[in-house]
Amino acid sequence: MTDTATQQPASRLDLDRLVIRFAGDSGDGMQLTGDRFTSASALFGNDLATLPDFPAEIRAPAGTLHGVSAFQVQVASDTVTTPGDAPTVLVAMNPAALRSELGRLEAGGTVIVNSDAFEERNLDKAGYSDDPLADGTLDGYATYLVPMTSLTKEVCKDLGVKPRDAERSKNFFALGVVSWLFDRPVQPTLDWIEMKFGKRPLVAAANTAAFKAGHAFGETAEMFQATYTVRPAELEPGTYTSINGNTALSWGLIAAAQQAKLPLFLASYPITPASDILHELSGRKNFGVRTFQAEDEIAAVCAAVGASFGGHIGVTTTSGPGLALKAETIGLALSIELPLVVIDIQRGGPSTGLPTKTEASDLNLALYGRHGEAPLPVVAAYSPSQCFFAAIEAVRIALKYRTPVILLSDGYLANGSEPWRLPDLDDLPDISVDFTTAFNDTDEDGAPVFRPYKRDPETLARPWAIPGTPDLMHRVGGLEKEEVTGNISYASANHRRMTELRAAKVDGVAADIPPTMLDSDGPAEMAVLSWGSVWGAVTSAVRRVRPAGVAVDHLHLTHLNPLPADLGEVLGRYRSVLVPEMNLGQLASVVRSRYLIDVQSITKVEGVPFTASEIAAAIAGAAGEH
Amino acid sequence: MSTETTAGPTTTKADWTSDQEPRWCPGCGDYSILSAMQLLMPQLGARPENTVFVSGIGCAARFPYYMKTYGMHGIHGRAPALATGLATCRPDLDVWVVGGDGDMLSIGGNHLLHSLRRNVNIKILLFNNQIYGLTKGQYSPTSEIGKVTKSTPLGSVDEPLNPLSVALGAEATFVARTHDMDRTHMQETFRRAWEHSGAAFVEVYQNCNVFNDGAFAEITKKDKRPSMLIALEHGEPIRFGAEGERGVIMSRSGELQLVDVADVGEDNLLVHDERAETPSLAFALSRLASGPFMPTPVGVFRATEGPEYASQVARQLAFAQDRSGPGDLEALLRSRATWDVY
């Protein structure tokens, strides 16, 4: 315990990186606290990555283990691609948070607790028979006991805030303490409180007072021997903002609509962790975005198909359970060959599974989850900010090839945030396509006709003629269509031909996508192949092991169907290939069956992302076998 | 598909008839509905290129293939949802939805309700034949209790849905009923639906001569109609019979009763009000007959004005642009705290 005062003024020490985890009750405002700490760090110039980790219940019974909500952020003076492995600092607002999160903390880490919350009732709820602050549980950690609740109430007393309301500001007290301890700028937080709570002066005053009191406590309590600073990272020059995956994805859809010169129609049914895309785009009506909260997942995807038929960009967002429900309609869009973008923010499954926890186990569903031979392009985002570009890419392929496209993100990307160097919008691709407005063929008598299934010879896409276009009236439907004419046909040879054409169209996208992403540091006999958000942990892991002499390449897939044309050749260069996935080896199976390469599958289905050290350990293990 | 040159300023039936041969069973009631529609369109002055028929799955759902308009034969039950997306984005189009009782009330019941309560500008035609036709004769959600079919050899024990009651329960702003034996009545009803702004729901009694032949014969045969069909006329006393000798009154308890006009006096007959603010009267009328073997009201039950969905959506877009200016992506990307790295 280090709560004995020292007389020396606190010294300031430099850290390369800091991983801090805020944990408290669901109602304690830990997500907000973490978010504020993150924003201040971003504005300070650190690189960072975050991991919100909260339960599915909105307000689980207070003080219980399953009500613990946590937020982890890694801030660093160099490049960061994960929210960090073991936290170096844990802020625990109550016994349940301490009990649930202490095991994650690195050996010798720092624990800052709200000591006021450690009374018998809360200890009971957390399952502590003895007080962990006194029984040696915290031996080996640098522990700071701060009576946050009572100090917050005290400082709010003169403001006219009721004690009960004042208590709710204790998260800002905690934020104040860590802001002092880690030398974060205070002004952004004060500005934010004013912006957010300005219309509720008492709340704003209480939060401001609590934050300042926490900061002052750090400085004057003489509890801490030192403060720490994490210097700004050397990031590429440019203008930055802090962004999470769902926001980046929403903005990417707006950008895609502008680059396509078509209106955006988003039809969705609320589902965690995808709903924030619906929220974000519903607030962007001035961009001409139509949003539609449908009666169910099926209606949502159907409405999007209807919009596409009418010449808009039909998009639907969901998570795994919703993707399962949408399967039949996606098959319809595939059969009538209209653009459609289906966005799956993956979470732990099956069934309701782990709604608020991340997983990447819908790859099989995306690739194969339809009846009949029904291939479609699948794109996967790999970092929060990259969701912006992934959205544009999904829309581009859907429009150009008149096909449904599934875009995979996950709960970690959706809610995790990172600094994003804003792109030059002039660099975004033109993804506009032409509607067909005139006859495209002649009949046997030489008269001009419209053939709705006469394909573009290069892309194999069919013409997109929208209602309102004179002369080109036609019918589309889920029954098999005759090649070229689109008339209903049950003919055997035609069905084979159409099945092959639909597959060839999707396969052809391979010529229109970038080669396999390769990060290499010299000759290597081993590679790690990633897709989706595992990119971050693998990127960190290879950087970590290379200085130790391990030669390893990092291959990454942004497109899961079709796969990059060079992938088979690239994989063939290595003696061993590791495939880490947040599932039980779905991509590994694809690679094995497609290329007859026996990759080594590394799996994690624990509701949290891989850490860099887990990947590094796997690499080291595999390197040892060479 | 052969040449489909857009019709001139005025259209004829041929301009609305596709080159696809209907594949319904000979004698199916769907033929007369199709014909009524193709003949009506020129009268309405509608344009084929601005007209879309959307359907789900079932015999009725083949309808779009035979109309020389834009069309989509979708998936089972989902036509109202497909049409909702289209009509929301394209308020310039006439969007019709066609489906059967299984399509609209069983697998697609949810979407029917929600498209009606949202008042999306789509015209929904429910061809009710009280049977599953395309799957060869199972009972449907409108089949009567005791219906013996392949899947109910001892008779159905399911209480049927009354399509009009369902639509009125969702507070649809336009609700009507017609039948496949009377082209003029169908056309007049379809015309009213077409003229309505918002969701229009029309139940069409339709004979399936293969699996449920004569289901409505007791009320729709020509000689039965005067005594068994109650033609609803807005603002008129509700009466029927060859001489108008029968009528409908509302009892003190609010129940509707069939009466001889001579017994109650003409002034005591219930006067139809399709524009009544609440759907209560229309609902009571929808419950007047417990099946197509009792005197049954036909015509427009309810036609009220309400905010149409797509125009409400468009209004919000316009409002947002007025308030915030047209969307500026560059500004959006900088709408949160930003910092510069040099």
> Mean pLDDT of chain A, as a whole number?
95
- Please state the overall shape of chain A, judged from the principal axes of the Cα atoms: globular
β content of chain B, as a range?
A: 15-25%
Largest sheet of chain B: 8 strands, mixed
What's the total number of strands of chain A? 25
Distance between the termini of chain A: 47 Å
Tally of helical runs of chain B: 13
The portion of residues assigned to helices of chain B is 25-40%
Q: Tell me the overall shape of chain B.
A: globular
Helix content of chain A: 25-40%
Q: Helix-strand pattern of chain B, N to C?
A: HEHEHEHHEHEHEHHEEEEHHEHHE
CATH topology assignment of the largest domain in chain B = Rossmann fold
- Roughly how many Å is the radius of gyration of chain B? 23 Å
The CATH superfamily of the largest domain in chain A turns out to be Pyruvate-ferredoxin oxidoreductase, PFOR, domain III
Q: Identify the strand order in the major beta sheet of chain A.
A: 11-10-12-13-15-14-23
Care to give the gist of this entry?
The complex is a heterodimer of chains A (626) and B (342). With 626 residues, chain A is α/β, with parallel strands linked by helices. In chain A, β24 (576-581), α19 and β25 form a beta-alpha-beta unit.
